[in-house]
Design goal:
- This protein is mainly beta.
- The two termini are 21 Å apart.
- The chain is built from 1 helix and 9 strands.
- A hairpin with a 5-residue loop joins strand 2 and strand 3.
- The protein has one domain: OB fold (Dihydrolipoamide Acetyltransferase, E2P), CATH 2.40.50.
- Strands 3-2-1-4-7 form a 5-stranded antiparallel β-sheet, with no helix packed on it.
- The model has no long low-confidence stretch (mean pLDDT 97).
- The chain is globular and about 40 Å long.
- GO terms for molecular function: tRNA binding.
- InterPro entries: CsaA (IPR008231), NA-bd_OB-fold (IPR012340), tRNA-bd_dom (IPR002547), Tyrosine-tRNA_ligase_regulator (IPR051270).
- It comes from Mucilaginibacter gotjawali.
């Protein structure tokens, strides 16, 4: 495993946000949703998330997630993904969201 310095870690903008809206994303190569997330003073941003195996569209709004906000936007099919949703692959490679277990202000930085 490669090590990094604290200074390098601090450059990664891991932020808390609340999911506002979830839409199907049939144009994606792998099953995914388009999710709209409120990051407080950092704004409302959209991302593509391959989380359809473990989550329904109906259960996601209101849930807080962790996103990486300082990657360049990435075009996925006809959609611009503005941040990276964080999660872990289960034993089948399906993504389980990284969790926040108590509410924090949207836009809070992981420290």
């Amino acid at each position: 495993m490669e090590t990094i310095t604290w200074h390098e870690f601090e450059k990664v903008e891991l932020r808390a946000g609340t999911i506002l809206e979830v839409a199907d994303f049939p144009e994606a190569r792998k099953p995914a949703y388009k999710i709209k997330v409120d990051f407080g003073s950092l704004g409302i941003k959209w991302s593509s998330a391959q989380i359809t195996r473990h989550y329904t569209k109906e259960e996601l709004p209101g849930r807080q997630i962790i996103g990486v906000l300082n990657f360049k936007a990435k075009q996925i099919a006809n959609f611009m993904s503005e941040f990276l949703v964080t999660g872990f692959a289960d034993e089948n490679g399906d993504i389980v969201l990284a969790a926040i277990d108590k509410p924090v202000p949207d836009g809070s930085k992981l420290i």
